[in-house]
Please model this.
Amino acid sequence: MSLGNIIADLSPHARVATAVLPFALAIFVRLLVGNNLLSRGLISLSVLWFAANVMMAPYAAGFRQEIRNLRILLP
Model:
């Protein structure tokens, strides 16, 4: 079983949790230790992780078809 299969088999709630949980943990660390280089770095990395998860999330079938149609329409 490859990593791609594990990620593909996650439920939508689990996918949201994998995107949001690192950010929530980074905020918790910031509340515990204050505003320092570690907490700023963790927040920056977690924001990048969240953005990557949102941009690479699988789209609904209808939305994917609309994107394909848009590619056909644009030269």
Notes: The two ends are 40 Å apart (CA to CA). The first helix runs from residue 3 to 8. The mean pLDDT is 79. The chain is about 80% helix and 0% strand.
